[in-house]
């Protein structure tokens, strides 16, 4: 697939999912939105499933890049700031755009029934938990770090779900405040 076409098709996929949902997002609609023939989608991606997988890989790459950027902006020894940076990346501008949020929601729903998408979701989940545990273990016992990491991940997912279903979308600031409140309460006994 020519690299210039991939972003075009990914954007078209998200736009169509945003407009009609995953079940209504046909290869024909996506190809029209992208200005390409549906044969190109079938040839390079094998159809809608492959295109959804590539779309989510793109979204996850952007999430990873945002995480790196947010982490590079804080001190390596400031655990609270580093965990907040990881959370902030999950609510980064691109990640909370309406079309991206609806694509995430469609992906999660489909991942329950599709082995390839489920694997992709598991990789994303493990990466988030691993990053959180790594930072939290600097000040928490390993078992407590794992517990707090699970709590933060659950808050992120819950805020995402509520935001995806809310006509006003996700408030990144409010989301980060909620998670920060939980984090501060969990870390308070260990920070003195």
TrEMBL record:
This protein's UniProt keywords: DNA-binding, Repressor, Transcription, Transcription regulation
One annotated GO molecular function: DNA-binding transcription factor activity
Protein's job: Repressor involved in choline regulation of the bet genes.
Species whose genome carries this gene: Agarivorans albus MKT 106
Metabolic or biological pathway, per its Swiss-Prot or TrEMBL entry: Amine and polyamine biosynthesis; betaine biosynthesis via choline pathway [regulation]
Domain HTH tetR-type: 3-63
Protein name: HTH-type transcriptional regulator BetI
DNA-binding region extent: 26-45
UniProt superkingdom: Bacteria
Protein's GO biological process: glycine betaine biosynthetic process from choline; negative regulation of DNA-templated transcription
InterPro entries: BetI_C, DNA-bd_HTH_TetR-type_CS, Homeodomain-like_sf, HTH-type_TetR-like_transc_reg, HTH_TetR, Tet_transcr_reg_TetR-rel_C_sf, Tscrpt_rep_BetI
Repressor listed as a keyword: yes
